[in-house]
Amino acid sequence: MKNTSISAAVVTLARENILVKPYLRQDLDDAFAMAQKQGAGEALLFHPEKKLITEGSRSNIFWVDHGGALHWCDDALRGITQKTVLELAEQMGMRVVCDAGLDPNTLSEVAEIFITKTSTGITPVTEIRMIAEPDAPPLWQSHHGPVTARLIKAFLELTQHHAKAQS
To answer: Which CATH number does the domain housing residue 16 bear?
Structure first.
Protein backbone atom coordinates (compact mmCIF):
# COMPACT_ATOMS: atom_id res chain seq x y z
CA MET A 1 0.00 0.00 0.00
CA LYS A 2 1.41 3.36 -0.94
CA ASN A 3 0.94 6.38 1.26
CA THR A 4 2.09 9.24 -0.89
CA SER A 5 0.07 12.40 -0.50
CA ILE A 6 -2.40 13.67 -3.07
CA SER A 7 -4.28 16.80 -3.94
CA ALA A 8 -8.07 16.71 -4.19
CA ALA A 9 -10.65 18.65 -6.16
CA VAL A 10 -14.12 19.50 -4.84
CA VAL A 11 -17.04 18.75 -7.13
CA THR A 12 -20.72 19.41 -6.45
CA LEU A 13 -22.40 16.02 -6.32
CA ALA A 14 -24.58 14.24 -3.76
CA ARG A 15 -24.87 10.48 -3.48
CA GLU A 16 -28.57 9.58 -3.59
CA ASN A 17 -28.38 6.59 -1.24
CA ILE A 18 -25.36 6.30 1.04
CA LEU A 19 -26.12 2.65 1.77
CA VAL A 20 -25.70 1.48 -1.83
CA LYS A 21 -22.27 0.85 -3.32
CA PRO A 22 -22.10 2.88 -6.53
CA TYR A 23 -21.14 0.30 -9.14
CA LEU A 24 -21.12 1.85 -12.60
CA ARG A 25 -22.16 5.29 -11.32
CA GLN A 26 -21.22 7.46 -14.25
CA ASP A 27 -21.46 10.69 -12.21
CA LEU A 28 -18.81 9.46 -9.75
CA ASP A 29 -16.59 8.28 -12.61
CA ASP A 30 -17.00 11.66 -14.32
CA ALA A 31 -16.16 13.54 -11.10
CA PHE A 32 -13.03 11.43 -10.62
CA ALA A 33 -11.99 11.95 -14.26
CA MET A 34 -12.42 15.74 -13.92
CA ALA A 35 -10.29 15.72 -10.77
CA GLN A 36 -7.59 13.67 -12.47
CA LYS A 37 -7.63 16.03 -15.45
CA GLN A 38 -6.69 18.82 -13.02
CA GLY A 39 -3.92 16.69 -11.51
CA ALA A 40 -5.86 15.70 -8.40
CA GLY A 41 -5.85 12.20 -6.97
CA GLU A 42 -9.46 12.27 -5.77
CA ALA A 43 -12.72 14.15 -6.25
CA LEU A 44 -14.31 15.25 -2.98
CA LEU A 45 -18.09 15.37 -3.13
CA PHE A 46 -19.73 18.62 -2.05
CA HIS A 47 -23.37 18.05 -1.14
CA PRO A 48 -25.27 21.04 -2.63
CA GLU A 49 -28.10 21.05 -0.08
CA LYS A 50 -26.01 20.45 3.02
CA LYS A 51 -23.17 22.70 1.79
CA LEU A 52 -20.67 20.13 3.10
CA ILE A 53 -17.99 17.83 1.72
CA THR A 54 -19.18 14.36 2.68
CA GLU A 55 -16.88 11.84 0.98
CA GLY A 56 -14.66 11.15 -1.98
CA SER A 57 -15.74 9.66 -5.28
CA ARG A 58 -13.78 6.55 -4.34
CA SER A 59 -12.94 7.12 -0.68
CA ASN A 60 -13.94 8.25 2.80
CA ILE A 61 -12.61 11.54 4.17
CA PHE A 62 -11.19 12.34 7.60
CA TRP A 63 -9.91 15.65 8.93
CA VAL A 64 -8.01 16.71 12.03
CA ASP A 65 -8.66 20.03 13.72
CA HIS A 66 -5.89 22.15 15.27
CA GLY A 67 -6.75 20.64 18.66
CA GLY A 68 -5.88 17.16 17.38
CA ALA A 69 -9.42 15.75 17.23
CA LEU A 70 -10.13 13.35 14.38
CA HIS A 71 -13.34 14.13 12.47
CA TRP A 72 -15.23 11.89 10.07
CA CYS A 73 -18.51 12.04 8.17
CA ASP A 74 -21.27 9.60 9.02
CA ASP A 75 -23.32 10.69 5.99
CA ALA A 76 -21.27 8.67 3.50
CA LEU A 77 -20.93 5.13 2.24
CA ARG A 78 -19.21 3.18 5.02
CA GLY A 79 -15.82 1.71 4.21
CA ILE A 80 -13.82 -1.17 5.69
CA THR A 81 -10.67 0.95 5.95
CA GLN A 82 -12.73 3.80 7.43
CA LYS A 83 -13.97 1.43 10.15
CA THR A 84 -10.43 0.22 10.85
CA VAL A 85 -9.11 3.79 11.16
CA LEU A 86 -11.89 4.66 13.62
CA GLU A 87 -11.04 1.57 15.69
CA LEU A 88 -7.31 2.42 15.65
CA ALA A 89 -7.99 6.03 16.65
CA GLU A 90 -10.09 4.84 19.58
CA GLN A 91 -7.37 2.36 20.66
CA MET A 92 -4.80 5.18 20.47
CA GLY A 93 -6.93 7.37 22.73
CA MET A 94 -7.70 9.98 20.09
CA ARG A 95 -10.76 12.16 20.41
CA VAL A 96 -13.04 11.17 17.52
CA VAL A 97 -15.87 13.42 16.34
CA CYS A 98 -18.65 12.33 13.98
CA ASP A 99 -19.77 15.26 11.80
CA ALA A 100 -22.33 15.75 9.04
CA GLY A 101 -19.46 16.70 6.72
CA LEU A 102 -16.60 19.12 6.19
CA ASP A 103 -17.61 22.74 5.71
CA PRO A 104 -15.37 24.34 3.06
CA ASN A 105 -15.81 27.69 4.85
CA THR A 106 -14.07 26.31 7.95
CA LEU A 107 -11.02 24.79 6.26
CA SER A 108 -8.80 27.26 8.16
CA GLU A 109 -9.71 25.25 11.28
CA VAL A 110 -8.37 22.04 9.71
CA ALA A 111 -4.78 20.95 10.32
CA GLU A 112 -4.76 17.67 8.38
CA ILE A 113 -6.93 15.83 5.88
CA PHE A 114 -6.65 12.26 4.65
CA ILE A 115 -8.74 9.79 2.71
CA THR A 116 -9.16 6.07 3.19
CA LYS A 117 -9.91 3.29 0.78
CA THR A 118 -9.17 -0.41 0.70
CA SER A 119 -6.72 -0.33 -2.19
CA THR A 120 -4.43 2.37 -0.76
CA GLY A 121 -5.15 2.45 2.97
CA ILE A 122 -4.64 5.95 4.38
CA THR A 123 -3.58 8.70 1.97
CA PRO A 124 -2.77 12.23 3.16
CA VAL A 125 -4.36 15.11 1.25
CA THR A 126 -2.10 18.16 0.97
CA GLU A 127 -4.22 20.46 -1.17
CA ILE A 128 -7.89 21.04 -1.98
CA ARG A 129 -9.10 23.02 -4.99
CA MET A 130 -12.52 23.72 -6.46
CA ILE A 131 -12.96 21.71 -9.64
CA ALA A 132 -14.99 24.57 -11.16
CA GLU A 133 -12.16 27.06 -10.49
CA PRO A 134 -8.93 25.30 -11.52
CA ASP A 135 -6.91 28.52 -11.75
CA ALA A 136 -8.04 29.90 -8.39
CA PRO A 137 -5.79 29.56 -5.35
CA PRO A 138 -6.30 26.37 -3.34
CA LEU A 139 -9.07 26.36 -0.75
CA TRP A 140 -6.71 24.58 1.64
CA GLN A 141 -3.08 23.48 1.77
CA SER A 142 -1.10 21.67 4.41
CA HIS A 143 1.41 18.90 4.80
CA HIS A 144 1.42 15.30 5.96
CA GLY A 145 0.71 15.87 9.68
CA PRO A 146 1.54 13.96 12.87
CA VAL A 147 -1.94 12.53 13.50
CA THR A 148 -2.11 11.14 9.98
CA ALA A 149 1.43 9.77 10.35
CA ARG A 150 0.52 7.97 13.61
CA LEU A 151 -2.56 6.44 12.02
CA ILE A 152 -0.63 5.34 8.92
CA LYS A 153 2.00 3.69 11.13
CA ALA A 154 -0.66 1.88 13.20
CA PHE A 155 -2.59 0.86 10.08
CA LEU A 156 0.53 -0.53 8.37
CA GLU A 157 1.51 -2.44 11.52
CA LEU A 158 -1.99 -3.92 11.72
CA THR A 159 -2.11 -4.95 8.05
CA GLN A 160 1.41 -6.41 8.18
CA HIS A 161 0.48 -8.37 11.32
CA HIS A 162 -2.61 -9.78 9.58
CA ALA A 163 -0.59 -10.61 6.46
CA LYS A 164 1.99 -12.56 8.54
CA ALA A 165 -0.79 -14.38 10.38
CA GLN A 166 -2.30 -15.45 7.03
CA SER A 167 0.96 -16.88 5.69
So the answer is: 3.20.10.10
Please tell me the distance from the alpha carbon of residue 2 to that of residue 102, in angstroms, as a whole number: 25
The answer as to whether 61 is a domain residue is yes
Class of residue 10 by CB neighbours under 10 A (exposed 0-12, middle 13-18, buried 19+): buried
Res 19: pLDDT: 63
The percent of the chain in helix, strand and coil, each rounded to the nearest 5, is: 30, 30, 40
Read off the pTM.
0.91
Sign of CA dihedral 85, 89, 91, 97: negative
Task: Give residue 21's pLDDT.
Answer: 57
In a domain? residue 1: no
The size of the chain, in residues, is: 167
For the chain, how big is the Rg over CA atoms in Å? 15
For 35-56, b where at least 16 C-beta lie within 10 A, e where not — what string?
beeeebbbbbbbbeeeebbbbb
